[in-house]
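Notebook B, p. 112. Complex prediction, attempt 2.
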Amino acid sequence: MESVEEKIRSLRDVLHEHNYRYYIEDKPTVSDFEFDQLLKELQQLELDHPECFDPNSPTQRVGGGVTKNFDTLPHRFPMYSLSNTYSKEELEQWEERIKKVLGEEAAIAYTCELKFDGVSISLTYENGELLQALTRGDGTQGDAITTNVKTIKTIPLKLKGNYPPFFEIRGEIILPWEGFHQMNAEREALGEPLYMNPRNTASGSLKLQDSNLVAQRPLHCFLYALAGNQLPVRSQFEALEKARSWGFKVPDSAKLVKSIDEVFKYIQYWEEARKKLPYEIDGIVIKVNSFNQQEELGFTAKAPRWAMAYKYQAEQVSTTLKDISYQVGRTGAITPVAQLEPVVISGTTVKRASLHNADQIEKLDLRLGDTVYVEKGGEIIPKIVGVNPQKRGVLENKVTFISNCPECGSLLEREPGEAQHYCKNETECPPQKIGKIQHFIGRKAMDIEGLGGETVVLLFQQGLLNSVSDLYRLKKEQILPLERMADKSVSNLIEGIEKSKEKPFSKVLFGLGIRFVGETVAKKLSKKFKSIQALQQASLEDLIQTDDIGERIAESVVTYFANPQNQAMIKQLQSYGLRFEEEVLEHEYHPAFEGKRFVVSGVFQNYSREALKNEIEQLGGTLVSGVTAKTDYVIAGEGMGPSKKEKAESLGLTVLSEEAYEKLKS
Ligand code: AMP
Ligand code: ZN
């Protein structure tokens, strides 16, 4: 018979291997479903046997730990930056300098690699297990973001093959375009300002305190350098191949070449080909291949002499800044937009460029009439990257960020720590009102058939639609006279609105557009509070006690319901028959559970934590996350924190063991 320990060990090995096949080799041999089943089995076993904990278990991929402050730790080998150039002449000069050191006759081979545009990371492995992940920081010390890095699936937690007992490996953590666009689509749905570019977004993601959130970000990692005292290789290209054999993701775009002419060919090839890559690169890195030669060449204070980055010039044009306009989003976020003299970049005419926020304008020190450089990278909106100092506009025209909303005139606000200005006049500011209605009818909310965003604008302008509750008062005769409104489409529209009354509470709640209340949060809130009435009465404390609801969301909910205009609108919607209550399923609750509040803590013999929580909810109980005087039962598993226990006892709460819980149920 296999012991539990052996079982756990073999499950971990199997899962590490599947992870490798899926993420590194791109050749999965099991279905996602089978993978999830194995992972669940392991999770359960680990829960039941906390003594078998392993910080590098495949279960750690989903995140877990929250890091309040990242430790700053020294690098064993400094992390250098790279010298860079935009010109081929300078590359030739670089080779000349190298030959002065190595001798004119020296044969020099180069490894050419892509320069990934992300966040550099140094990973330490001991006996084939990931020990630590440090950011570059200032090159001599960086931040330990190990817990977050473990959630990145392309980073092996356990190595294969014949690796040295102790070494470091460096690479770049990147966010591919697809993930970046997907994250921005979610931001858009929430009415939040968009992320600027994949690199900043990757960097921000790695600094999140909650590793569960990091796990949800589609980050990847490419490795490109080994560091250590006794490496089993003597050249860069071998290093890449070895790293690949140990289970690291090393892209096969790297190439070993024998002359600087071949380097140029590589540069030329990727100049076009990079546009089709699923992630962003900002150039090519050229490294002298032989470690012996590298050692002879050594380092300057900042960078190795044996490597050079060739950066691609992003296509840049200069044009005149005519004006700045300000857009107001659904949540009131203000985005400054540069109005440009139209120019053609990469085949498209550009008239506008995003300036993101006030800081950006300040950084560029913009003046109206300035000649600005505009760049269009990949698929993102064009941006202003600089000002031509020779052709400056006059000082008097310095751009100062507006202080009042361009649409409604109210004073703008900027929260400390936030980059964006906001118009807080939610209920009267026209674009916010239109945006709210558009959000309400959207596919993920009420999904009203026959009604689109444009029609909302038209109806708003005609004075027929001022808030979402007006939707349910619309009459066919009112709409028919409007332009482009055929009889059939108007009937569809009215029918669509009527049908939306059937939508469940969670969709209605999401549709209200409360800041930070996305689809998932709306589902959680409706499940926990069951009705709008209960939700309106919930205190900040009650809300924070809900699983996965933080202070920021809780505050936003309380503020929303405190507003009398919102209250009035909800009343109206109720009177039109929208659903403001979670549908009660046809089953009986257990009398000992119904309406009672439960805290679940520790590890259990016969249940996973999730299963236990589900059961409590099914029996009619409510889960809360902290022990307070309002808690009815604390279900205490093994390893429940002593302070929690003490608190529960001092409050005189009923603390139930797993056994006692079974009795309560029967
Ligand atoms: P820079 O930030 O312009 O000084 O460029 C140096 C950075 O380029 C390094 O710190 C790495 O993060 C990054 N980089 C991206 N791809 C590579 C690569 N293939 N080899 C070395 N460094 C790279
Ligand atoms: Zn406004």
